[in-house]
Write a structure and sequence with these properties.
3 strands, alpha+beta
Length: 71
C-alpha cells in the first residue's frame, strides 16, 4: 500500500478498517495485469505511484451508482 513498506493482504486492510461483512462485500478493487492498483476509497498501491520518472498519468474517479432498489 502507498506509504507503507512491504505488502498487505486486502483482507487485513479491510479488517484494520473495522469494516462489517456487508461493507467488505461492497469494496471495489482496481487491478492491472494482476497487480492491485487501488482499493477504492481506502488505499492506493505504491507499485504504480507517480514519481520523478513518470511520463503520463491516468486520473480515475469512482462514482458509485446509488439505487433505490434493495438487493
Amino acid at each position: 500500500p502507498f506509504g507503507m513498506n512491504g505488502s498487505k493482504l486486502v483482507s487485513d486492510l479491510l479488517s484494520d478498517e473495522k469494516m462489517s461483512l456487508a461493507d467488505k462485500r461492497k469494496v471495489r478493487i482496481l487491478t492491472c495485469n494482476g497487480d492491485i492498483l487501488w482499493v477504492v476509497g481506502l488505499r492506493a498501491a505504491n507499485l504504480y505511484s507517480v514519481g520523478k520518472n513518470t511520463a503520463e498519468i491516468l486520473c480515475l474517479t469512482y462514482n458509485p451508482v446509488i439505487s433505490d432498489k434493495q438487493n
